[in-house]
Amino acid sequence: MARFMDVHHGMVGITDQQLREAHEADVAIQHEEGVTFEHAWADPADGVVYCLSDAPDADAVRRVHQRAGHPADEIHPVPLTV
Amino acid sequence: MARFMDVHHGMVGITDQQLREAHEADVAIQHEEGVTFEHAWADPADGVVYCLSDAPDADAVRRVHQRAGHPADEIHPVPLTV
């Protein structure tokens, strides 16, 4: 398992409810790919969403987000954490 | 207080020790700006570092990182969290 930070752009105006529903859609299927989404943070003004997850690889993160209907624009392994 | 995600680019090859030293440099002065840096995540391959903080405003985050010697390239308020 490794840790990943993925980024979604173009989410200007995202609401708290939309963020929660998107997260729940990920969580509902994440076990099929061995992924655990831990947190998401959204900046509605700039339209950026950051998601932190544990996953076997970046493709597993990519597949969950894609199948849940909100493909990620960037997926970064973040092996270093403070 | 608000929550912020800031991003540093151009950090290709950053090591665990460098990330820790940078974080400690922030933490050493953060109280002067009322900022609390909570976590940082680094992708050494793509050279991206994400920092999560609580702060009175984005300028306070900007000042701490700048004074600590590693100015942020982006600072996003992230009022929505899951």
UniProtKB/TrEMBL annotation, chains A, B:
State the protein's name: SCO4226 family nickel-binding protein
UniProt xrefs under Pfam families: SCO4226-like (PF14026)
> In terms of domain of life, where is this protein from?
Bacteria
Record InterPro entries: SCO4226, SCO4226-like
